[in-house]
Amino acid sequence: MKILLVRLRLIGDVVFTTPVIRALRRRYPQAHLSYLVEPAAAAVVIGNPHLDEIIVAPKPRGMARLAEDIRLARRLRSAHYDIVIDLHGGPRSGWLTWASGAGRRIGYDIKGRGWMYTSRVARAPDLRPRHSVRNQWDLLAPLGIPEPDPAVDAVEMGDDPAAARRADARLRAAGVSPETPLVVIHVSAGNPFRRWPPASFQALTEALVRRDPARRILLTSGPSDAAAAREIADAARRSLGALAASVPDLGDFDLHELRAIVARAAAYVGGDSGPLHVAATTTVPVVALLGPTLPERSKPWRDPRWFVETLDHALPCRPCHQRTCEPGDFRCLTWTTAEQVIAAAERAIAAARTGGRS
Question: Which is nearest to 283 in space by CA: 258, 266, 296?
Fold first, then answer.
């Protein structure tokens, strides 16, 4: 049997599909499992122990996209998949699923696209307080696979030994040994609705250093917001003076290097973005700053033994579609104080001393 999973777009969304991959391998141990993904999130599934094949779909612009999709569709059709599951539900993923010609095509029953599938599943509303993993898992119901349990079906990401060696060399060059208490703080997110203020990140960084000068605080950000971490780190170093070395500059990382660094940290702090969910594939204690998104939908999906603390506010405007801030001040995040996050980070660091357990 040959099975193809299709999930395009973002890192966090692809991380949330990894329990589905494991469940399919458990249900069909002899199947050939393939995964179609776009370049930005390919690292999440490269090295996944349950996959036999990864197909990276380029995302060119204009007419080049049409030519690429036709080429890709021909490749999928020639592979003769028995089952294709569209975990995305967008126009491109739906068309590629249909074009595969698979005898069984499973997808969401979305108006205008449901005809592309032989098995259609109701799609949960976007803002429903139900976890994204469960929403995607609904597509396994036609295959008779029971509900997920995060203790058994946690998110995962394959280890990359070469990336781990590169990360270790960079940490050692910055004076960060395996015994050094390291805190990773991811300061950017996909849109302004999910970004905690830079001044708050700076206050958090300085407080963690001053409470324990032996700590090293690593500030990271995504490629679309690369300057954010540098600016916050530079401001913190100026303020810390003689303790400035506690905020090292290690440059940029690829996703596997970032995961390797997070895996050896005492804690991870960040907003609702792809790196948060990459961090959840490790056992590091996590503090998640959830602004407009609900923890019921977006909190890290991991074994409940491992520490996770979410910080959010019950507001009448939450959750939202993240297009217009009704109050205008992004209060779902700006009302989260540095003091609250400092306290949560300290609880996470304390959990690390007991093996990262809640």
Answer: 266
Helix axes 338-352, 198-211, angle to 10 degrees: 50
Average pLDDT rounded to a whole number, residues 94-113:
96
Is the pLDDT at 130 greater than 90? The verdict is: yes
pLDDT beyond 80 at 223: no
| Residue 323, Cβ density class (10 Å: 0-12 exposed, 13-18 middle, ≥19 buried) | exposed
pLDDT (tens digit per residue) in 12-70: 999 999 999 999 999 999 999 999 999 999 999 999 999 999 999 988 888 888 889 99
> In the chain, which residues fall in CATH 3.40.50.2000?
2-143, 161-352
Question: Token match 């890290």: residue?
Answer: 300
Residues paired with residue 310 on neighbouring β-strands, in sequence order: 288
| Interacting residues of 311 by C-beta distance below 8 A, sequence separation 6+ | 287, 288, 289, 290, 336, 340, 341, 344
Q: What is the overall mean pLDDT for the chain?
A: 94
Other beta carbons within 10 angstroms of residue 243's beta carbon come to 15
pLDDT tens track for 3-26: 999 999 899 999 999 999 999 999
Q: How many CA atoms lie within 13 A of 135 on its CB side?
A: 20
Which of 3.40.50.1820, 3.40.50.2000, 3.40.50.20, 3.40.190.10 is the CATH number of 2-143?
Answer: 3.40.50.2000
Kindly state which CATH superfamily the domain 161-352 is placed in: Glycogen Phosphorylase B; (3.40.50.2000)
Cα–chain-centroid distance for residue 302?
12
Secondary structure (DSSP) of 196-224: PPHHHHHHHHHHHHHH-TT-EEEEE--GG
Can you say whether the dihedral through the CA atoms of 268, 271, 275, 279 is positive or negative? positive
pLDDT tens per residue across span 262-316: 999 999 999 999 999 999 999 999 999 999 999 999 999 999 999 999 999 999 9
Are 279 and 268 in contact, with CB atoms under 8 Å apart?
Answer: yes
Q: Pick from 40, 344, 59: which is nearest to 183 by CA?
A: 344
